[in-house]
């Protein structure tokens, strides 16, 4: 994997930035805060969608970028003779992630997660492995020798990915512990051989008792069957008696019902005869008053004629009154139309004036918005400069706290005579750059604020004037609608007046006399009373035929019921029924029921006893089955324990084998480089299987802590490079062609720096690109190529 090009937009401190990566030993040089480390943070972000230190996405965006601007990173690299491009973006207020991945200018995949998956598949390294293999800082190098043994071992194992083996061993041990505990617990709950024998003997005793009990139940069941047979015989005899008794009772009820019906018919027939006599008398009265109906009809027709005349008369009077009201309305509408037409003369000029005002308001609002955007940009610039001042003041305070004899917090080099120079440089940066910029921005800001206030005042006056004018136009438009309605109403009045005149002429020929109408109504009311009485007589006389028919039917029913009653009495006398025999048989049936219930209760009790014994047998069998089940589970636990124990032993052997291969490999690479750097003074660096470091001096092995700071720094560097190379081989990533080191020169003097550079020259054949980050400007001449920030 060879880096080709990196482009940044609104990424951290970079607003717009683009960089071409060269081959060879490349120095990336710049002052503290110039964005050197940001370049490799951007590379990590492009590949895996996250920063090296897992910063939140809100901290990625440049402070001077507005809400709508996106964060964009584009990385181009070469891998296996193909050109790949990754594009990652954060868009919108919520910084939504977008990503694309191209191979030889063809889109391969989209989506943040899918792009990350494709990268891992391609280079065969996840984010942690990538960082541990290809990146190293001064702090990380120093920790190789400065940490205590356990912490150093843990760190190296993590770099090499060997901590996964430790986790597997821990997992296996936890399972072995849990299985031992479970086996002990399961064993404590199993039945002893004596308990199992005791349970089997008890089952045998229960089965013998159960057989005896079942024989007794069978004997009682046979006796119960005999009692049930007798019950059936008695029940049939009782049913015959009850059927005869029911038949006799039914006939007796029918005789009583028929006798009651005959008596009721006689009473009803007498009442109907009396009603028929009264009806005949009313028939004579009806014949004498029949002429009233004819008189009633004539009077009714005359009244209808008078009411029709009255209706036409009232309609004519109403039309005459309505005609007067229409004349008055016509006059009022003419006057109102004239007034509205005079008021609407000024409407077109007012509408033209309103249109011009709206255009002026729109132009002014646009100008005001532009000025507000410029104001906001100036405020953001002031805030950015103030943030830089605050950060610089924090650095000054840190340096003052450390003092002259302390090391630089960035590069770990002792400050000494550079102490005052560094402080003066930082103070000068604040005074000559940041504060000066703030004064310029604040002056521009004040000018914009004044212009915005003037423009806002002018806009408010325009809006007020437009509002007043709009109210006048709205009022005149309402009057315009009223004018249209008034004209339409005037036309309607003219039409209605013409129609009323025509109807009045038609109604002139009809004459109505109220006195004559009232006299007819009085005469009609007198005749009406007699007429309604005649109608009631007619209704009553219609019942004559119905009465005669009912009387005839009642006589027939009486004759039929009398004959039926005679037959029922004869049949009743023929039925033979002995009440005494019935009760004797019923008593015997009840005694037999009692005997049956006694047998049922006895059998039930025996079956309860039988069920109880079966329950005890089942309970014992369940205990024995559960014991067998627990024995099976125990055996499974024992087998699992054996498996986990074998795996733990195998993993331990595997761990030892890996360590025995990794440690010598690191020793070999580190020794070769260290020998070259020290010009043969130190021939060998040994890395033990437990990752303890030793340096050979004159053929003797010494711990790394014995040597001076510069020698230890060099040893740390070659060890870290050896670890990176070994880790790359372990991950199968032989095509990764670059390394990057951040501030690795530390406290080295010029000769040591040259030695470090020589060390990197020795591995150029294995890595096409080696990037060294440093804030020390004086060393830039030592590199083949330099990227100065």
TrEMBL record:
Pfam families: AAA_23
Residues annotated as domain Rad50/SbcC-type AAA: 5-255
Superkingdom per UniProt: Bacteria
UniProt KW keywords: Coiled coil
Heme found in the keyword field: no
Coiled coil, from the record: 196-367, 617-644
Signal peptide segment: none
Gene3D superfamilies per UniProt: P-loop containing nucleotide triphosphate hydrolases
Single GO MF descriptor: ATP hydrolysis activity
GO biological process: double-strand break repair
Keyword Coiled coil: yes
PANTHER family according to UniProt: ABC TRANSPORTER ABCH.3 (PTHR32114:SF2)
Protein name (Swiss-Prot/TrEMBL): Chromosome segregation protein SMC
Originating species: Malaciobacter mytili LMG 24559
Upper lineage: Bacteria, Pseudomonadati, Campylobacterota, Epsilonproteobacteria, Campylobacterales
């Amino acid at each position: 994997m060879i880096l080709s090009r990196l482009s940044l937009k609104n990424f951290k401190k970079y607003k717009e930035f683009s960089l071409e990566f060269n081959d060879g030993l490349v120095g990336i040089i710049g002052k503290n805060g110039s964005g050197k480390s940001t370049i490799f943070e951007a590379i990590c972000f492009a590949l895996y969608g996250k920063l090296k230190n897992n910063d939140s996405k809100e901290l990625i965006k440049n402070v001077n970028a507005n809400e709508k601007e996106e964060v964009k990173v584009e990385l181009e690299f070469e891998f296996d003779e193909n050109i790949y491009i990754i594009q990652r973006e954060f868009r919108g207020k919520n910084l939504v992630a977008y990503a694309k991945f191209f191979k030889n200018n063809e889109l391969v995949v989209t989506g943040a997660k899918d792009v990350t998956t494709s990268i891992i598949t391609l280079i065969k390294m996840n984010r942690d492995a990538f960082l541990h293999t290809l990146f190293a800082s001064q702090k990380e190098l120093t920790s190789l020798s400065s940490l205590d043994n356990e912490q150093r071992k843990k760190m190296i194992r993590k770099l090499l990915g060997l901590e996964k083996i430790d986790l597997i061993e821990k997992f296996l041990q936890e399972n072995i512990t849990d299985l031992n505990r479970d086996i002990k617990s399961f064993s404590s709950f199993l039945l002893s051989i004596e308990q199992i024998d005791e349970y089997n003997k008890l089952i045998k005793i229960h089965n013998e008792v159960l057989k005896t009990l079942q024989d007794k139940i069978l004997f009682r069941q046979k006796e119960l069957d005999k009692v049930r047979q007798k019950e059936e015989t008695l029940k049939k005899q009782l049913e015959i008696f009850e059927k005869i008794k029911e038949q006799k009772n039914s006939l007796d009820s029918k005789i009583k019902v028929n006798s009651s019906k005959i008596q009721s018919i006689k009473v009803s027939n007498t009442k109907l005869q009396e009603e028929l006599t009264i009806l005949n008398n009313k028939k004579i009265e009806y014949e004498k008053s029949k002429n009233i109906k004819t008189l009633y009809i004539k009077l009714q027709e005359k009244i209808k004629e008078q009411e029709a005349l009255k209706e036409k008369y009232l309609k004519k009077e109403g039309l005459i009154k309505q005609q007067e009201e229409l004349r008055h309305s016509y006059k009022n509408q003419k006057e109102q139309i004239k007034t509205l037409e005079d008021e609407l003369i000024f409407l077109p000029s007012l509408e033209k004036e309103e249109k011009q005002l709206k255009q002026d308001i729109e132009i002014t609002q646009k100008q005001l918005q532009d000025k507000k955007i410029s104001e906001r940009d100036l405020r953001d610039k002031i805030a950015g400069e103030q943030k830089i001042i605050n950060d610089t003041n924090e650095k000054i305070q840190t340096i003052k706290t450390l003092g002259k004899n302390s090391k630089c917090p960035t590069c770990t080099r002792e400050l000494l005579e550079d102490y005052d120079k560094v402080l003066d440089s930082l103070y000068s940066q604040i005074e000559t750059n940041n504060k000066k910029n703030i004064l310029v921005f604040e002056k521009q800001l004040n000018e914009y604020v004044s212009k915005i206030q003037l423009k806002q005042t002018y806009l408010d006056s325009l809006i007020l004037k437009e509002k007043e004018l709009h109210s006048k136009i709205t009022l005149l438009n309402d009057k315009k609608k009223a004018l249209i309605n008034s004209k339409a109403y005037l036309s309607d009045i003219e039409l209605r007046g013409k129609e009323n005149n025509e109807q009045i002429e038609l109604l002139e020929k009809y004459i109505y006399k109220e006195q004559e109408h009232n006299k007819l109504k009085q005469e009609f009311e007198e005749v009406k009373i007699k007429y309604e009485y005649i109608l009631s007589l007619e209704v009553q006389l219609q019942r004559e035929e119905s009465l005669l028919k009912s009387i005839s039917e009642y006589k027939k029913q009486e004759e039929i019921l009398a004959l039926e009653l005679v037959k029922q009495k004869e049949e009743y006398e023929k039925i033979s029924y002995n009440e005494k025999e019935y009760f004797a048989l019923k008593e015997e049936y009840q005694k037999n029921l009692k005997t049956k219930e006694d047998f049922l209760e006895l059998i039930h009790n025996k079956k309860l006893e039988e069920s109880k014994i079966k329950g005890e047998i089942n309970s014992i069998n369940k205990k024995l089955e559960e014991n067998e089940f627990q024995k099976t589970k125990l055996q499974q636990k024992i087998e699992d324990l054996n498996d986990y124990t074998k795996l733990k032993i195998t993993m331990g052997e595997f761990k030892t084998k890996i360590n025995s291969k990794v440690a010598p490999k690191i020793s070999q690479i580190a020794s070769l480089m260290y020998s070259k750097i020290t010009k043969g003074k130190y021939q060998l660096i040994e890395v033990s299987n437990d990752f303890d470091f030793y340096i050979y001096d004159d053929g003797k092995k010494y711990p790394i802590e014995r040597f001076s700071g510069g020698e230890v720094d060099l040893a740390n560097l070659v060890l870290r490079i050896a670890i990176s190379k070994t880790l790359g081989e372990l991950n199968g990533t032989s095509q990764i062609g670059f390394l990057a080191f951040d501030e690795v020169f530390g406290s080295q003097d010029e000769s040591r720096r040259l030695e470090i550079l020589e060390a990197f020259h020795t591995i150029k054949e294995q890595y096409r690109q080696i990037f060294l980050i440093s804030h020390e400007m004086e060393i830039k001449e030592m590199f083949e190529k330099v990227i100065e920030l």
